[in-house]
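so my prof wants the structure for this chain in the tokens format not the other one, which i didnt know existed until like an hour ago. anyway here's the sequence
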Amino acid sequence: MSNPIIVGISGGVDSSVTAMTLKKQGYNVECVFMKNWEGEDETCTSEQDYKDALAVCNHLNLPLRSVNFSKEYWNNVFQYFIDEYAKGRTPNPDVLCNREVKFKAFLDFALELGANKIATGHFARIVESDGLFQLLKGVDGDKDQSYFLYLLGQDALSKSMFPLGGIDKKNVRKLAESSGLINHAKKDSTGVCFIGEQKFFKKFLKKYIPTQPGNIHTIDGNPCGEHDGLMFYTMGQRKGLGIGGGHGDKEAPWFVADKDLENNILIVAQGHDHPALFHQKLEADQIHWISGSPPHALENISAKIRYRQMDQSCKITTLSTDRCTVKFDKPQFAIAPGQSIVFYKGDDCLGGAIIDNRN
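here's what i got, hopefully its the right format
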């Protein structure tokens, strides 16, 4: 048979339907289950996920291999994740995981096995025109994952397939159920395996970063509480601040507005519409362009500063090889250093960068 398409199968419904779809289309399909974390965290479900992946492959009569990329994950993703949190920033490990593990370590592994291409269950599309590969949004706007894929380049896109990019999630589940896949109703994974649900977040980080409790001040400099450590908070955060009702307007919630890293002070503002929570400009570095070079026109583009945010009109006002300044048409809520800003031209994902500061 022809060289296979090797599917990265996670045990979830999306990658399972990816494998099933490609087989129905006549491709020679093989599957690989990736284990990316070694540990005993109770929130990690890798053992059950592997069982689900194996059951799906048996049902579809597809071969399944398992590979361990824990070392690559630790060195190239997790260490960066911890370093960023220790600096008081808010990293996005899923973005780096895609580049370093799924579309580098896994891609290399699959090619060594003789794969023609790899395929994953991402909701995004790849289009080739005149030798240039574009990353487009998935047609399901609620599930589009192009934001997490902006670090991919021409080589990775040329060797990858996203069969689910043209359908919506409801149809994915319907296809899985009608084909008898046991995981057709399986809950979507949330967060990263080793962190799990948000309630375990503080407990997890404390294993790797020394905590430094400190004071919480209002935007006017008035003490109003104590924090557990700046690493536990992100811009715009509302829950878990523990500010008593004796401060400010009892009816209005408090939000994280800034961090004074030098003095270990968490700065908060009251009310979602407080001006301190909004910024119209930001600076970003570590720029990556999917085409290999910046777009010709830096105006009339849009950007997202977080996953599932609506596209926001903006201009790139200054640009160097590795750094840019972005001005939005409207002030943006809770711009968080360490997160990714991803640029778009319509459905075309152009690339992105890491937010450094805002003003």
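also thought this was worth mentioning. The mean pLDDT is 92.
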